[in-house]
Design a protein that fits this description.
This protein is mainly α. It has eight helices and no strands.
């Protein structure tokens, strides 16, 4: 017996959320299939840890389902709201990571790169996460969304509910602060001292 096609293909995210709030389980499955991979990818890039990213993605989706009955159509895009939630949850986790030693970081799951390359990549991700946690929250969020997520400044402005000029300022200050924090660790992390910033 063939599965019936998804009746919600092409429907706006907000329409699916409203349908879910009205008891339509298929709408929830369709919206989850559409949004969960993006949420998980965002959390993975920001945290550098698959297990933590899965926890954040699950938490973010649960928050989406909880607010579904109160969703006000037209005020914001569902994906933008969800990006903001994920960014905030990741920022909270990055802030809590201060003082985590490299020995406490989980082994990478992918065995394709050499062990040395994996360790170096993990050390760099940990150093970046630790450095991000030292930034003011708004700077860390702007830098993460711009340089880890690859989002454009107007989209970041919408997610953070600030002007594009403020995004540019936060990103620039955050990058300078990260460079200062990481400056003494180039050799340790396998970067050449003469590498351009």
């Amino acid at each position: 017996m063939n599965a019936s096609p998804d009746p919600f293909v092409g429907a706006p995210d907000a329409a699916l959320l409203v349908a879910y709030a009205n008891g339509d389980g298929q709408a929830a499955r369709s919206l989850t299939a559409r949004l969960l991979p993006r949420v998980l990818a965002q959390a993975t890039r920001m945290l550098g840890n698959q297990t933590e990213a899965e926890d954040v993605a699950q938490d973010a989706m649960m928050r989406l389902w909880k607010i579904a009955p109160d969703w006000r159509h037209g005020e914001a895009q569902v994906s933008t709201w969800l990006y903001r939630v994920v960014a905030n949850l990741c920022t909270d986790r990055l802030r809590k990571r201060r003082g985590v030693s490299l020995d406490q970081v989980a082994e990478p799951l992918d065995a394709a790169p050499s062990v040395t390359a994996q360790m170096q990549t993990q050390a760099r991700m940990t150093a970046l996460s630790d450095a991000l946690a030292q930034l003011p929250e708004r700077q860390a969020q702007a830098v993460s969304l711009r340089h880890l997520e690859g989002l454009a400044n107007p989209e970041i402005a919408q997610i953070m509910d600030i002007s594009v000029r403020s995004v540019e300022s936060l990103t620039a200050r955050g990058k300078r602060a990260l460079a200062d924090i990481m400056a003494g660790r180039k050799a340790e992390l396998g970067y050449d001292d003469d590498e351009p910033e």
